[in-house]
Amino acid sequence: MTLAVWLRAMLSAAALTGVGTMLIVLPWLPDWNQNFFSSSNREWYAIWMNPYFRGAVSGVGVVNLFVSFMEIYHLLRGDGRRAPDGETFAGPPQSG
């Protein structure tokens, strides 16, 4: 696997980790209700502030974190998975 393919996969996993973390944390912050959806009408506000909805958003974040950690694990393990361009992921690139 080339360095460019490996770096692209690691950057993708890092982005998934960031998005997952935000989806877990943001629904529980005090500023969660200051957005377009919650201020458009009362029904949206009731849904937006519902703890079950907030928990569902956080659950999507947990799934996102799980996927990102599995991607990192498989990249570092080098189990021979295929990249979108057909190259085989074979672990981190070796120097030299």
Our Rg estimate from Cα atoms comes to: 19 Å
The major sheet is characterized as: none
**Mean pLDDT over the residues:** 83
CA-based shape: elongated
User: How do the SSEs run, as a string of H and E?
Assistant: HHHH
Instruction: Give the helix/strand class.
Output: mainly alpha
Q: What's the end-to-end separation, in Å?
A: 14 Å
Number of helices: 4
Helix content: 55-70%
Low-confidence stretches: none
For the secondary structure, the number of strands is 0
Strand content: under 5%
SSE topology:
Layout: H1 3-25, H2 36-40, H3 42-48, H4 51-77
Helix pairs in contact: 1-4
Q: How would you characterize this protein structure?
A:
This protein has 96 residues and is an all-alpha fold. The protein has four helices and no strands. It has helices spanning 3-25, 36-40, 42-48, 51-77. The two termini are 14 Å apart. The mean pLDDT is 83.
List keywords for this structure.
96 residues; mainly alpha; 65% helix
Characterize this entry briefly.
With 96 residues, this protein is mainly alpha-helical. 65% of the residues lie in helices and 0% in strands. The chain is built from four helices and no strands.
